[in-house]
Amino acid sequence: MEVEPFxxxxxxxxxxxxxxxRRVCSECKIAYNPSKEELARFGLSASSDDSVTFYKANSLxxxxxEKAKAEGNLCPKxxxxxxxxxxxxxxxxxxxxxxxxxxxxxxxxxxxxxxxxDEGMVTILAYSLNLVRQGHTxxxxxxxxxxxxxGLEAEMKAKRKSSLTCKTCGAEMQQDWIDCLYCTTPRFIx
Length: 190
What we know:
This protein is α+β, with helices and mostly antiparallel strands.
């Protein structure tokens, strides 16, 4: 487009990214405990999510739907699809002086995104994982719609930066520690 960076940074108020995710059916969703490996894939730890109930969609195959119809057991809300409706997932970056400077300097998108997260922006991945914790959608839907390796990497960088003090004993921790060496509390407890 050949637009000078200072013209973009001066005119830009914010940037909004949005996706639609399927909402898990509230009538037939299935509570389950994800494995440690499944949680780790999304940057979550089992210890921080013990009090959270995770759900799977009760999605039926066409044969199972016909059988459930015949038996009168078909979910009246989703008709065996497991999902009913959609829910919006958003990431909103509000322009700041720091972000304007980065744009003017020609910084790449990773640097700009990292700075925005430092300033409090909630990433689209973090927002969608919060919807999973609230029971509105599933980890499978997050993986299908919003999960990317770069998104997870940005989320993990933000967590590492914000968790250099142990939440249990208050000790200062180093960047590469996963657990507190003093009280053995996992670093990423939420």
